[in-house]
Structure formats: C-alpha cells, structure tokens
Amino acid sequence: MPGERVPMRKIRDVLRLGWGQGLSQRMMARSLGLSQGVVHAYLRRARSAGLTWPLPEGLSDAGLEALLFPPASGAAAEERPQPDWAWVHRELRRPNVTLSLLWEEYRAGAPDGFGYSWFCDLYRSWAGRLKPTLRQVHPAGERIFVDFAGSTMPVLEGVSGEERRAEIFVAVLGTSSYTFACAVWSQALPDWIDCHVRAFAHFGGVARQLVSDNLRAGISRACFHEPAVNRTYAEMAAHYGTAVLPARPDKPRDKAKAEVGVQVVQRWILARLRNQKFFSLAELDAAIQALVAQLNERPMRALGTTRRALFEALDRPALCPLPEAAYEYAAWKRCRVGLDYHVEVERHFYSVPHALVRQEVEARITTATVEIFHRGQRVASHLRSLRRHQPSTLAEHMPSSHRRYREWSLERIHREAGTIGHDTAALVEIILRSRPHPEQGFRSCIGILGLVKRHGAERVDAACARALALGTRSYSSVAAILNNRQEQRAVPDEPAMLLHENIRGPGYYHCKAIRC
C-alpha cells in the first residue's frame, strides 16, 4: 500500500529551513522528525517545479501539492481501467470471496490495471461514500432481520365500520435487502410466529440466523449478554434449522437492515395506501403484497440493480431449504399434576401416567393436540378438546384398580347379568333404575356380578331371586343371603294385619288432618 503523504505544512517547513535559513538536510530531518531521504525528495520536487523561497504569495496548500505532485506522464492513474466497484461490493457478500480474489480476476481482464494495494485503497474509498447501513458486509444467506413497523394501518370491520389498527411485520434479507411485509392484528406470539412462517415461505428458504428486536412475544428476557428466547420462538427456529440472535437492548445498529427495511416499507408502501379504505385484514394484506413485489423490482440507487436480482443471484442459492411441513404454532404451559393424575389446560382435564401425581410437567398446546412433557420426555398426547370441565383420560394412565372399574359400561353390566340368570338381570335393572344416574349403581351391580367367582352363577341367581322377593336392592343383601346360605329357603308369607282397639290405622291420620 502506498505510504501516507507528508502534510503540506511540513513541506513548507522543509523549503523554509533549507532555502530560507540554509540548514543542512540532516539538521532539517532531525528538526522536523523526517528521514533525510524524504527531505531530499521534497527539495528535489520543489526545484523541478521551479519554486523558490519565499513561495509565491497566495499559493494554497492544494496549489503547492499540484506543483509538487503532478499527474504521472503517460498512463496516468485516472486512465487505468476502473473496476466496477458496485460489482465488487456485491461479490464480497458471497461466501469465502475476498478482495484478493477479486483483484486477481480484475487484473486478468486488465493487465495494466491497479496494483493490489491501490485496488484495496480505492475500494474502501468508494465504499466509504455509501450509506452507513451498506458498509456492513452480510454473507449471502446468513441473516434475516425481522421487526414490526412503528406505524399501523386502519381497517374498518363489520356493518358499523368500527376501526381496528393492523400491525405491519417486516423481514429483510441481509445481503440483497430483499423485503417481505404482511399485516396482522397484533404483536402477540401467535401472530409473531405466523409472520415468520409466511416470510420463510415467501423467501423460499431460511437464513442461518434470525436477528430480531427484543419484542416481548419473542424474547422472554432482554439482556445485553444473555437474552432469554421464548420457548415457542426457539422451537420454531429449531424446526427451520436457524438460530435466534436478539439485538442488544438500545442498540438499533445491530438490526440496521430491519430499521431501514421498516423505513422503506412505511415510506414506499404504507404512505401509498394512506388514502385507501380497507374493510378486512385480508384486503389490506393483499394490497401490501402487491406493493412489496414492486418494491423488490425497483432499482436501488447505490448499487444500480434491484433487490430481486440480488436475491436471485446471491441469497436464494445460499438459503437453507425449507422443511417438508411448515411449523405449527404451539404454546407452552407449566402445570402440576393433580391427585386424579390429570392436568388442566384451558379448563379441560388431560390425563398423564398416574406415577406423576403432584409432579410438575409442561404442556405443549397446538390447534389439534395437547402433549405433556416431563423433564423433556413426552409422557402423554391427547386430541385437543374444547369441552370445559370435562376429562380426557387414557386407560394406560390409570392405576390397575381404576382401569378395571373404568372398563365397565352400562351395556356390559346388563350383558353380564343376563348370562348369570333372569333374576340377576332383573335385580340389576332395578338397582340401576332406582338411582338418579345409572352410574351411581355401577359399584353395587359390579359387586353382585363379582360374587359369581366365589359362589357360582346358580347360587347368585337364586340369591338375587330371594332379594327380589324380600324387596332388598343392594350388594350387601345378596352377599348376606349367600354367606348365610339363605338363597334356597322359602320366602315367608306376609303376616295378616292385626286389628286391635289400640291400633289407630290410616284413618286416624286422615281424620286428624281434616280437623286441623
């Protein structure tokens, strides 16, 4: 790289001390902090330019520099083939491309072009004149910058035309500045995730990193050193094989691409829609998508090409492929297992293995399923139910005693009772019908059917016949009849009604009621 030129102030001192005061070159070099060779070179240039001391009055530093350092004769630097600096700037965004490689390609087409040090110097000078946001070098397919716009759009809903404000989501690819925007109702987590899924589908791939603002929906805890990413947001990133890099708090330059992308969307898209009325979110979103397509086809002043052209050439080949299925939004909730081995999710109860009673678990909730995790392992999966205060119970989650009881149904009880005998079926029918709810008689009926294992079907049916004759309707009565071997004994006849003057009879209470 060429050495830095000495300031004109020191060159004037060289001429003053050498020609005005007659000092030797050694003394001038020591006094001015220059080498003796540099002092000699400047005196020689001054003599060649025909200068004398004192210098002509009114000669400026620029004029003196032009006299001492005239353009080289023959092939001047300005006449050398100039590289296409915009092309160089774009190529540097490709993975593993360096200035050294680009200089070699430039010299292959222009053998009399600039040397490597001049090439680097001129490129940095050109890049320094660009906007600060373009001075960042983002490798192709490396980052997607995401954020919500500060401005919202009005939407008129319903017959009354009530106004709601729609949020505008913006995603920008770092290399090509290829832009995506869409309208959603809120900045809540479900909309935040949905916007990312739509952006990835629009780009046709996923960058290796996601740079986001510290939005509460995506970042649970904003921290300069160790930010905490929301569980659902991190799961979505893992599904697409990317990583979330939250910007540092109060450091907008960390996501400068998103800041500029939001500004462009607000000025180039939302400003054009300011006088239009939209009566649904879908209508607003369709208008935004049409203008986004025009924005990506619009040439950029600094680079002389469009965002889409840069995207097709740089970002699209470098993006990671999309997974086979899009991410399905899932919310997470911490729960504690109750004594009935169920957890409550949105006022519905889902079972887990009974061994996890009183343990803390995590529920992953999607639109179709509810999955329960314990220490990172899935222990239960249910179809999501919208029935409030109702249980969803799997048999394998129940203790063996509960499982045996649960296997009984009204139809099975009637069927089992019919196989024992007619009287057993009749007693079971009476027991179930006598309860406000048939399920309340299940235990009595199951107990009666279980007596067959000890006493046999014939004895149990006979015991049920005796219980019917005696007017008893319980398991304990049938069990007592069998234990006392009373099932074969005849039922005693009903005793005759006793008539006596001391027995009042039903008429007494009827007459008393009339007198009252």
From TrEMBL:
Integrase catalytic domain sequence ranges: 135-315
Domain HTH IS408-type: 11-92
InterPro entries associated with the record: HTH_IS408/IS1162_type, Integrase_cat-core, IstA-like_C, RNaseH-like_sf, RNaseH_sf
Coiled coil: none
Family the UniProt entry places it in: Belongs to the transposase IS21/IS408/IS1162 family.
Protein name per Swiss-Prot or TrEMBL: IS21 family transposase
Species name: Teichococcus wenyumeiae
Lineage: Bacteria, Pseudomonadati, Pseudomonadota, Alphaproteobacteria, Acetobacterales
